[in-house]
Amino acid sequence: MSKEQGCVLKAWEVTVRKTQQAKKRANSIFGTVSVSPQTDDEATTTEENDDETSTSRSSIGELYHAERVLPNGDYYTGQWYDSFPHGHGKYLWTDGCMYIGEWYNGKTMGKGKFGWPSGATYEGEFKSGYMDGIGTYTGPSGDTYRGQWVMNLKHGHGIKSYANGDVYDGEWRRGLQEAQGKYRWRDESYYIGEWKNGMICGKGTFVWTDGSRYDGFWDDGFPSGNGTFKWDDGSFYVGHWSQDPEEMNGTYYPSGTEENLEWDPKEVFNNLSEYKICSGERVPVLPSHKKLSVWNSSKRVEKPRRISVDGRVSVGLDRAFEKMNMWGSESGEGAADIDSTTRRDLDAEIMRLEAEGFIQSLKPSPVPMRLPRAGRKQGETISKGHRNYELMLNLQLGISRHAVGKQAAVVSLDLKHSAFDPKEKVWTRFPPEGTKYTPPHQSSEFKWKDYCPLVFRSLRKLFKVDPADYMLSICGDDALRELSSPGKSGSFFYLTNDDRYMIKTMKKSETKVLLRMLAAYYNHVRAFENTLVIRFYGLHCVKLTGTIQKKVRFVIMGNLFCSEYSVHRRFDLKGSSLGRTTDKPESEINSNTILKDLDLNFIFRLQKAWYQEFIRQVDKDCEFLEQERIMDYSLLVGIHFREASVAGELIPSGARTPIGESEDESAPRLSRADVDHLLSDPTRWASIRLGGNMPARAERTMRRSDCELVGEPTGEYYEVVMIFGIIDILQDYDISKKLEHAYKSIQYDPTSISAVDPRLYSRRFRDFIFKVITEDD
Description:
- This is Phosphatidylinositol 4-phosphate 5-kinase.
- GO terms for molecular function: 1-phosphatidylinositol-4-phosphate 5-kinase activity; ATP binding.
- The chain is of the alpha+beta class.
- It is built from 15 helices and 32 strands.
- Helix 1 crosses helix 2, helix 1 crosses helix 6 and helix 1 crosses helix 7.
- About 15% of the residues have low confidence.
């Protein structure tokens, strides 16, 4: 293709965007070059007798009725548009699954009915292939659910009727009973109250058919905490309930003169053990698992070119050459000619655009995105001879022998004020030869200190951390990994071998901030289960004896990116622009690189229910940090792209992929079905939470200027899994930050710098985050 043709196409693209008249002319040119997809048999039988009809139906933009037997044996009949089912139609898969209803660009969208060969059916609303909206599922054994769905999961209000006669009427979240609900067993006994992760948990009432009832608190399906058991004759028992007999205590109050002295509260637990919550049926194949055998595409070979972090390229005509192929075949034969009238119109447009300066300012379209280069496993293993080998041994000894190993289990999460006293700390001496309480070791003598040990034990219980697993991760045979050399802060970062925990050395000022806000932090994470704030599991200090007398303080945190999904892109987002771009050349950027605000080239879209939960929680977390005078925190975001070709090129959602293209098992690809499998497996639903393993859509953006925080949406979407949380919450607005703000405000726009008042920081942070993470329409 000549340079002139490239300029012609560029001018034409600008004209299409600028005027309605040009769009109509574009339809007249481009509307006659696509060919409707057909099977080989159809092509043979219709080639001689139906050329004219085939040509008329091939026009892009025309909706017509089609009846197809597809190459793999699937059958479709219904409305068709540009290679996809579109409108109302019926699709029958070879395995016996069937869908009848509305389609949009090859995906089930709108109202429809999906049937399984087992006899199970779902009738209701669909969105992008998922059961999403209001719908009814009837299982093969008679289970029925009527209510709200989000991405194949029961989410919202719904009524579940089980095959054995049990009924649940209440709220659901991610496929499990959550919040308020009523469960009625087939013998007419029922529970009404709070639920959590599919279990009776919180405050509620259980009523038996004989008239007796329990009102109080529950945990894991049994009474736990304060509660009252009442008989139908008016007598009752009030006390503290627990499955541990040593913690059980209360008082029996008879209704009259008769006393039931032989009654044992354990009878309630024995009786309740017979009342099981039905798990329901598992759906083996979800509608979004089903792929259609109707897509096709042409291969193209592109020149390698330099791509910036956000996908922009150097100015050139490569994209124009690709688009010019719309006017001819790849081989150059049978090319459609542009008539002389059209060429004269285009020449006139070129002259006008040159005069107005549009052609010089044209920017190329973004090139197809690729999976980033995989980074090596993070960190340097700390082995014997490493400069911090002894420090690692001291840390492991202290945690295994004192912080966790020698501590009693937490009985109650209600802590006294004295537990948060910064003076609440315990020093333990660890000589090399060992003591009555410490083992002999090969390191130098050191002292170990735990800060507020009861508080952090309670936090670990609150975060459901098993003490044995915790010790094994940090103190097992596998060594820790050091992530980086100390930067300006002087902090080291260590990662456990299983990637579950991160250990950071702390400055004294950071330790003071954490201890000052510890009570508020504890109350916040206890009140908001889905908080996005980083999780702290322990705060310790190692004091090396000898002439140096060096103190090393460190905090143990959860690793946000410990996930079964590989993280392809990482972003640290603050909402400021000054210095908020990576300083690495493109050749050094890989999947481990932490990118910043001005490197972000996506807007992430969450399902409505999750987005509403997201904005509520971000507001609560930011209010907490603002009250504690904390600033300079970030939203750390990890992205896993779900769809990629064998060659590593990202596939936009709804893009056409070649028929019969083989999948290389070693390629870096996780398909939509893999994520759907996670969603359909009840044992793995707990891994999907706010900020953890969340399915979403990422819309690609393009910036008009390098200082623009949020780019313009392009309409190009990618299916992703998101992992995110709020980190770096130990920087208060102290005198150093106030001086930094004053100094930088003289040189730069005050709104662009990171060091600002906590109230302003919180507002700016939320405004930015709610622009880049939005609701999926």
